Amino acid sequence: MRQPLIAGNWKMNGSRESVKVLLDGIKHSVHDVSTAQMAVCAPHIFLGDVQAQLENSKIAWGGQDISVHESGAYTGETAGSMLADYGCEFVIIGHSERRTYHAESDQLVAEKFAAARQSGLTPIFCIGETLQEREKHITEQVVARQIDAVINHCGVKMLGEGVVAYEPVWAIGTGVTATPDQAQEAHNFIRTKIAELDAKVADELRILYGGSMNAKNAADLLAQPDIDGGLIGGASLKSADFMTICQAAQ
Ligand code: PGA
Q1: Considering the domain 5-239, what is its CATH architecture?
Q2: Which neighbouring-strand residues pair with 165?
Q3: Could you identify the atom of ligand 1 that is nearest to the CA of residue 214?
């Protein structure tokens, strides 16, 4: 049985004050969630506050990006050891916003996957096609290429130590969600592809859906057999919505 995971991706939002209010809200109703795992991925500058508020709770936390380097002259970057130092369990890697705005290649993302594992972090490895790619009917080719980069660099066993997040780029922050059938089809393709190399890894791997998942549509998406949770952007900034999604995951 794969334990469902609902992870919030706060992106570059919030303030110390709003983080406190949001986490107070989440902690208030955390007892309503029994089986799903919960996590929030915060802007790195808030991780100290997040750690102070969530320590000894059952909510995990993580970063939104990681450097491939261990330390040194890399202005503005965050090393995996630093995230681990702040108690992070997770780190998002390869988010489409980083692939697009920071020109992160499949190869770099694969190196980040390895860097995360080296620091004991669980990568939330994001993949997904653009609208143009979907319209050209190359969705499967695109996600296969993105996955192969990690498998070639890290091996399929290490891939299995992470979490995959299928996030169609056209659904991120747009309010347009993949239908449960569209999402299930992509998730099933991903699992089947990995099963060709290692059936056990494929069976145990958690594949999250991301892209305008919200309190209204979460239950239908999460009911699909190959959808094991969600990576939640906008809706993770409101505690009530986030907790509704967490409850839908069980
Ligand atoms: P969204 O973002 O839920 O706001 O669409 C999801 C993500 O980018 O991870």
Answers
A1: Alpha-Beta Barrel (3.20)
A2: 126, 208
A3: 3
